[in-house]
């Protein structure tokens, strides 16, 4: 009888603690770039995340959200310290980040080791939903493989045979090119030269000269943020745009068109979002975002918004009890996320299974041309969950 009484007391105490925890604010640690080449991307992700939370009355799963922010500076060397500050110093319940794949890899390692919920709203590092996959790690964006693979198929269908690739020498660039090569070479094309420069370098002249000397049918590239702006402008200024078509993963022209101006006109890119989807869901999102921030949303804003949606779905299933990781994961795995990009689900590795669009730059928009790959799922190679 004594043991039953003790067990009952322990159960009541646990229930009381859980109720108290659920009544407390949910701390969300935003580890995003606030400075450097990716600063605008970090801002859009944060805006999108906060917009969804605001639409839910400032609460997810019945719990008021409190934000704690750290500038990750897109620096992998500082990543482990930064993420540990959020977990150990600030006691966050959930991590959201980041843009840079190298930083995200460090975040994923710490999240996996500590069991902290992590939502990745951009960084496409294949390993996050590959060998480093975990029940508590989710991605609301893409794997680097996805847009690259879709563009490999597109460029092969356009009849290009010999292609040069160019990117930053880091995880995102390497994996984007790898995805592109897989599809392009499967269709009979050949990558004749792979060019790269250290991140976040923007001295492109020598590499552009090499492209001109190689005379490929076309060029495939992965750049984002400030680097994408300079590359597109330098490519046009070198006279290459007229003779050697430039294609890219969509980050080349997303959130960058204002600065790229007419040099971006006509460029074709592949991504899981476009500016002219013109669906009721996307139209309402774009209107709400423009009203809240006096800006037009881009893919980064969508990814932030959907990270919050995914967290909300998980928390709703457990009435805000963030300790129930398995139940949160199960709810997100079952869900069809009603995204502005179009509805998507998550794979067993927790990466979006989604349509990849072919877009063309027209004025200040990445306009929809067609669906390049329907419900494209990353292979999730190496994931053991």
> How is the main sheet built?
8 strands, mixed
Number of E-state strands: 14
Strand content: 15-25%
The secondary-structure element order is HEHEEHEHEEHEHEHEHEHEHHHEEE
Mean pLDDT across every amino acid position: 94
Distance between the termini: 41 Å
Oligomer class: single chain
Structural class: alpha/beta
Uncertain spans, ≥5 residues at pLDDT below 50?
13-17
Describe the structure.
This protein is α/β, with parallel strands linked by helices. It is 43% helix and 21% strand. It has helices at residues 2-23, 39-55, 76-89, 101-114, 145-157, 171-186, 205-214, 225-237, 257-260, 280-293, 299-317, 325-334, and strands at 26-32, 59-60, 63-71, 94-96, 117-120, 137-139, 162-168, 190-197, 218-222, 246-249, 268-271, 345-346, 352-362, 365-376. The strands form two sheets. Strands 7, 8, 9, 10, 11, 12, 13 and 14 form an eight-stranded mixed β-sheet that branches. Strands 2-3-1-4-5-6 form a six-stranded mixed β-sheet, with helices on both faces. Helix 8 links the parallel strand 9 and strand 10 (246-249). The chain is globular. The relative contact order is 0.14. Residues 13-17 have low confidence and may be disordered.
Descriptive keywords:
385 residues, alpha/beta, globular, six-stranded mixed sheet
């Amino acid at each position: 009888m004594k043991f039953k009484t003790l067990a009952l007391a322990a159960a009541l105490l646990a229930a009381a603690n859980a109720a108290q925890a659920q009544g407390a604010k949910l701390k969300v640690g935003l580890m995003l770039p606030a400075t450097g080449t990716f600063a605008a991307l970090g801002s859009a992700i944060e805006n999108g995340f906060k917009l969804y939370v605001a639409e839910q009355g400032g609460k997810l799963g019945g719990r008021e959200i409190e934000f704690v922010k750290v500038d990750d500076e897109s620096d992998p060397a500082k990543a482990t310290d930064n993420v540990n500050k959020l977990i150990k110093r600030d006691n966050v319940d959930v991590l959201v980040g980041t843009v840079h794949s190298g930083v995200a890899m460090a975040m994923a390692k710490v999240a996996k080791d500590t069991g902290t919920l992590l939502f990745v709203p951009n960084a496409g590092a294949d390993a996050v939903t590959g060998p480093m996959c975990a029940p508590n790690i989710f991605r609301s964006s893409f794997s680097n493989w996805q847009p690259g693979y879709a563009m490999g198929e597109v460029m092969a269908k356009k009849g290009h045979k010999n292609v040069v690739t160019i990117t930053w020498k880091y995880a995102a660039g390497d994996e984007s090119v790898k995805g592109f090569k897989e599809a392009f070479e499967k269709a009979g094309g050949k990558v004749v030269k792979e060019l790269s420069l250290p991140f976040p370098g923007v001295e492109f002249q020598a590499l552009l000269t090499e492209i001109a000397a190689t005379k490929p049918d076309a060029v495939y590239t992965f750049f984002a943020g400030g680097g994408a702006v300079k590359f597109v402008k330098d490519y046009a200024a070198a006279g290459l745009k007229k003779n050697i078509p430039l294609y890219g993963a969509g980050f080349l022209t997303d959130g960058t068109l204002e600065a790229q101006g007419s040099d971006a006109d006509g460029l074709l890119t592949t991504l899981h979002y476009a500016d002219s989807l013109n669906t009721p869901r996307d139209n309402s999102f774009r209107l709400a975002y423009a009203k809240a921030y006096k800006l037009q949303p881009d893919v980064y804003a969508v990814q932030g918004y959907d990270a919050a949606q995914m967290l909300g779905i998980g928390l709703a299933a457990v009435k805000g009890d963030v300790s129930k990781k398995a139940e949160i994961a199960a709810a997100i795995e079952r869900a069809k996320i009603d995204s502005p990009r179009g509805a998507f689900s998550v794979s067993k590795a927790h990466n979006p299974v989604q349509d990849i669009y072919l877009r063309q730059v027209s004025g200040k928009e990445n306009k929809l041309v067609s669906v390049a790959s329907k419900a494209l799922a990353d292979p999730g190679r190496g994931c053991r969950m």
